[in-house]
Amino acid sequence: MVNNFKISNMEFSDVNEAKEIWHNQYKRYCDNSSFPSFWKNDKESVERFLNWKIKNNNAIVAKLDNKVVGFLAYDVFPFHGENSAFCPAIGHAVVEEYKERVYLELYKSISHEWVKKNIFNHLWTIFFNDVKLKNVLFELGYGSYLIDAFNDSNISSSEKSICEIRKATIENIDVLYELVEESNEYYESAPLFLKRDKYSKEEIKAFIVKNNVFIAWDKELPIGFINLSINEDNDVINMAVKNCGLIDEIGAYIKLEYRNKKVGIHLLKRVNDYCRENNIPYIHVDFETANLYGNKFWKKYFDPMLLSMRRPINRDINKA
């Protein structure tokens, strides 16, 4: 039997069915104690997100016999200077029975509209353990780009430290600035090829004042840092929750000659201890899959939850 799926703009009357499909999908792929449990029962966030996308005409739905079997909602924004379409993890779900076919129909429909508007950079975030969807996107030409991972503030280590971890103060502005500049050079090198934001010394000062920046020292030599901020609200894009620790913005960095010497775990343990002391239940980190050192390190201590995938479309298609 051939099923005929109908793809159309999502309407407000479709939201209840759509959010049930999303929650079933979340429970299927994210039933792990390290993931924030908040999203298992939260109905309002998905509903608000979909209503917002419907108002902006940025949501489509797949139906079979007038019943919703899948949906896709997205944003359009500049990414590294290029107009891009982005579908977050909260912005799509399909019933398991028709998974591959419906996802292909949804993407075929919406990608046609994106390319007509000269949007050639397509990004999706999916649940990390959703192998079926990962394979669908891989065969369409998507590649891994970014991972969001969580830990439930339960990191321990018996490794002996070669360094001392101290919280950064205003007196460390120059030290941190130089380390951040060095980390930017690392991200621009192969195989990452990632241009990160440049920060002024005033911005570095603001990080020290507002966040919790910890610097690793080998005697009087600064050899690395890690930055921890605290999430002020639930975030539907990276699935972090209010009062979650975020290793974000300037992130973390260790000088190349000090890697594989347990500096990273001692920086991370200092962050973990801070979170436990301040009743912060989760720690979130995101990292590029092309960051060979970071990819290996973070996966040792965090559970991957989300995988962002990217497909660049050939730019000459609309000139044909």
Oligomeric category: single chain
The low-pLDDT segments are: none
CATH superfamily of the largest domain: Gcn5-related N-acetyltransferase (GNAT)
Radius of gyration: 21 Å
Task: Describe the protein in words.
This protein has 320 residues and is of the alpha+beta class. It has two domains: 156 residues, Gcn5-related N-acetyltransferase (GNAT) (Aminopeptidase, 3-Layer(aba) Sandwich); 118 residues, Aminopeptidase. It is built from nine helices and 15 strands. Strands 4, 5, 7, 8, 9, 10, 11, 12, 13, 14 and 15 form an eleven-stranded mixed beta sheet that branches. Strands 1-2-3-6 form a four-stranded antiparallel beta sheet, sandwiched between helices. The radius of gyration is 21 Å and the shape is globular. The mean pLDDT is 94.
Short description:
It is built from 9 helices and 15 strands.
Furnish the topology, listing elements before pairings:
Elements: E1 6-9, H1 15-29, H2 38-41, H3 44-55, E2 59-64, E3 67-73, E4 75-79, E5 82-87, E6 92-94, H4 99-116, E7 121-127, H5 131-139, E8 143-151, E9 164-167, H6 173-188, H7 201-210, E10 212-218, E11 221-230, E12 245-247, E13 252-254, H8 263-277, E14 283-288, H9 292-301, E15 303-312
Parallel strand pairs: 5-7, 12-14
Antiparallel strand pairs: 1-2, 2-3, 3-6, 4-5, 7-15, 8-14, 8-15, 9-10, 10-11, 11-12, 11-13
Helix pairs in contact: 1-3, 6-7
